[in-house]
Structure formats: structure tokens, C-alpha cells
């Protein structure tokens, strides 16, 4: 390997690469591409093939039927609640952890990562145990007319928990990387805490924040496990898009199921494009 | 504005960054805090800015105790070592920052910023971003930004540290001129003797959290208060104390304070053998061995003297120190 690399550098052309090197390289690229094809490309193509199996009208029908629209609406609504909540939390946590020292800092950092380590189904289950109809708190809330589990608040809570870390992690990393000099400069120049945050800190982490928002949004819309446990699967009411896909599949409506799934694929593609653009914007700091 | 610090102590864990530091700086003075890295000079600057709270001691601005006053209310200008410019703002907005957060009228901000950019010779670059500037330009933006709200005291942390030698030389002279025009009381932190000696009215030398000596550059250089200061301020030859004097002492002679001659001079002298010679700028540095002392010494001769002696390696000469300073052995 080292020898080949040297030959390559000295001659500056591909002629320096030995035939055996070229073969190895082709093999490795082939393996990588094959893996991507099996794991990513084939399933995505399968989704679209199945979705359009019964023709375009059937596809459109599956996407616009009442329950699908309700699922789409609930998914969008959940994201609209969860993403701003996690942005607010992420900024607060990032500001505190990235710019200040306090006792217990590493504990808080570890706590923020817990949702990434816990299986989503388990986290959903925890909410059912704590806030479900059989729990003390759940009974208390039900008595006062607040239904959490098997209703949208439960779905939002479970989703918020699962996507808790995405914004916070990005923001903390960016805040730490920025150091404290600029905030200190702002304060010495007479800025208040809020002015320092809004005029100096926030603009300097804006790309990282947006990146975190995109990741958080994608995960919030696609979450299945945790939501599945707390939703109760009431059709047209407590089903998000991923749950609706499962329901249709269980009803043997395969084509419709894949049609709805394709919506999630579009969402994923959109996220990927947004993520790539944001990454480029971050590489050119302005 | 005059300021004074009295008996400042500040520790970070087991490390004492400041211990018992007292310093009084009159209005309009430019004082340099000089010392090796880790000596506490930046900590002292941060205490003055209000970014650190001392464990003990007091900070007085014009006689008023500001020890517990936050940085925003102290009206100081601080230039950070790496400038800490706001990268997402233009040069104009960087300089305008302190006026904007005080909600000054737009017309007044424009006038003040333009005046400052003129003064730091960056008028044409107002709409640039900091990332589009050179090191020297960034430094001047940081300075203009610190001066915008008319600070009572200007604090500069290693202002020339990140610049190459030529830019450094220019900025030093320029900064001294600026101070002569504005007369803002200024504290400059540096580890570089030339920075301190060239532009400061007074030099405060720090070592391990303590002030070793405070005085005019010439006084400090010619009358160092301790062996440590003597060594820190320049090359030295160490001699055992002369016979009959304190045996615990050690004598210091600067290389330019040693005369070499071919014949035995009237003054006290050591017989020596020339080992090596090389030109160092305007002087010729001669290294020689003194058998009586069992060690080598160095002398700096000006070129004329060197030519008069026409020394060769291995020649025998007589070295006579013009001035020996004796300090207690550390």
C-alpha cells in the first residue's frame, strides 16, 4: 500500500499504480457500491415499484384518502410542536454547556445523550407507564380531562424525547468550538446577556442550529417505535404517517401502504438535500 | 482615568495566578505588564476588565471601588490576543457594536465609526468581513472596536503576538502615536521585552503571580530589583561574588558591559582565551574561557573596538567588567 502510493506520487500519473492495485481498487469499489445497492437503492426502488403497482390513480387515491391526510396532518403537527420545543431546549442547553462551567456539567451532557442510547420502544413504554390510564399521574390527568397517552400529547411527548438530542448536540458542539472570547468581548463592550446571545452567539451557530433542526425534523416525522407504543392506533386520529403505513400493510393494502411510504421517502430526500446544502454553507463560514 | 489595584489574589485550583499584586497607574499612562507566559499578567488584565473576580484585594477606578462591578458597567476597552472579532459582522458593524448595544442614534454611530476607521487607517474596508482582512488589519479593527465607546482604560492582551516581525514593528510605533494622541490610560500585556520597552511609559514585570518590579524602562533595565529580573531582561554573565564579599551572592554582568583588552588594564580583570566570535547585528559577540573562574563568559563589542583588537580564536585577552550587580543567590 505504502509502496504503491509512493509510486503514484512520484510519477504523478495512474501509470504508477500496479495492475494488482487497480484490481484491488475495483474490487473494493464494487463491494461498496454493491452494498449501497442492496441496502439503500433496491429498497427505495421497491417502495416506488410497489406504490405504483396498481397505477397512478390508485397511488393518488391512497395518498389523498381521508385517513392518509389525517396521518399527514398529525405528523406535520407533531413536528411543528416538537421541533420548536427541542430548538428552545437545545439552545438553552448549548448556551449553558458550551459557554459556562458549573458543577454537574458532564452529568447533564450525558443525560442529553440518553435518548440516543435508549430504544425508542422502551421510551414509549416509559411514557405509558408514567402517564397511562393505570398510572397515578395518568388517572389524575384523565380526571381533569387531559388525555395524554393514546392522544396527540403522548405522541408529541414520545417524539420529543426521541429527538431530544439532535439540536442540543449540534448546538453544544458549535458553541464549544466558538470559544468564549467573542461573548467576553461583547460583554466588555457593554452588551447585556440577551444582546450577547442574540447578536453574537446565535449568528455564529446559525448553520449548526439549522442542521440540528433538519435532523430533528426528519427523525420526528419518521419516528415509529416510540409513537407506536403511545398512540393507540386510532385510525384517522392518532396515527402518524409511519403508523398509517403499518396499518395499511396489515390490511393487505400493500400498494396503498407503499404509496404512503413513498411520502416518507420524499421527506427523506428533501432532508438529505437540505442537509447537504447546510453542510456546504457551514464549510464557507461567513 | 487613573486606576489602582490593591493586594490582588487569584487562584485557579492549586495554581496561584496572582498573589498580592498592587499597582497604581496614573491617568494617561501607558503601562506594560511584562512577564513569561503563565506569570499571571493576562489574569490581571481580566480582573481589570471585570471578567475575573479576584479572591482577595480591590480594584479602584479613579478611587471608586469596582471590584464587584460587572464588565459591561466598567467602560473598559479590551483587545483580545486573537482579537475575538465578530466574524459574521462587517468591519463597520464590529466597530459600531458598543454604540449599538447602548442604542446610540444612527447618525452618531456612523460619524463615530467613520472617525475611528479613519484613525486606524481602515476607511476603505468598512464593508469587509473580518475573514477578508490581514492580521494587522484585524488587530486595528479590534482596537477601533475597543475605542468606540470611549473607554476609561484600554486593555491590550498581547496585541502584537500573532503578527510577523515587520508588521509588529510598524504597529508598535503606530500604537504609541495613537496613545500620544488619545491619552487613554492603557495597559499592555506582553511577553516581549522589546514591545514593553519601546512603547511603555512604565514597565511592570511579573513572575509567578507577583510583581517583581515596576518602573520606567530605563530604570528597570539598569537597576533590576532581583536576579530574576536581571536574567529576564537580557543576556547575563554570572560571576562568583568577589573575594571578601558575601559568599551567598552572585554577580551579574551584561555582555555589553565587559571590556576586552590585549594588555592588563588598571581595573579588575580576568585573563581569558577567545573561543568563538560571531557578528550579531551591530555588535560582535565574543565567547571566551576564563580559567580562574572555570567557566566561559560572553562580551558584546562594538565593531570599532573589535577591529582595534583584531582578535583571533585562541588569543589571550583580559576581560574587565565595567559594572557588576550582586544579588542574593536564589
Could you characterize the architecture of this molecule?
Chain A has 286 residues and is mainly α. Chain A folds into 2 domains: 2-51, no CATH class; 55-283, MetI-like fold (Orthogonal Bundle). In chain A, 80% of the residues lie in helices and 0% in strands. Chain A is built from 15 helices and no strands. In chain A, helix 4 packs antiparallel against helix 14 (241-250), helix 6 (120-131) runs parallel beside helix 13 (225-231) and helix 10 runs antiparallel to helix 11 (193-204). Chain A is globular, with a radius of gyration of 24 Å. Chain A starts with a helix and ends with a helix. Residues 1-13 of chain A have low confidence and may be disordered. Chain B has helices at 41-49, 71-74, 91-100, 106-119, 135-147, 165-182, 193-199, 217-222, 227-232, 303-309, and strands spanning 3-12, 15-25, 30-34, 56-61, 64-65, 76-79, 153-157, 185-190, 202-207, 210-215, 237-240, 249-253, 258-261, 270-280, 283-290, 295-302, 316-321, 325-328. The mean pLDDT of chain B is 90. Chain B contains 10 helices and 18 strands. In chain B, a hairpin with a 4-residue loop joins strand 15 (283-290) and strand 16 (295-302). Chain B has 2 domains: 3-231, Rossmann fold (3-Layer(aba) Sandwich), CATH 3.40.50; 238-328, OB fold (Dihydrolipoamide Acetyltransferase, E2P). In chain B, strands 6-7-8-3-9-10 form a 6-stranded mixed sheet, with helices on both faces. A 5-stranded antiparallel sheet of chain B has the order 13-17-14-15-16. Chain B is α+β, with helices and mostly antiparallel strands. The chains are: A mainly alpha (286), B alpha+beta (330). Chain A binds chain B through residues 181-182, 184-192, 195, 199-200, 203-204, 285-286, and chain B through 49-51, 70-72, 74-78, 80, 82, 84-88, 97-98, 100-102, 129, 131, 145-146, 148-149.
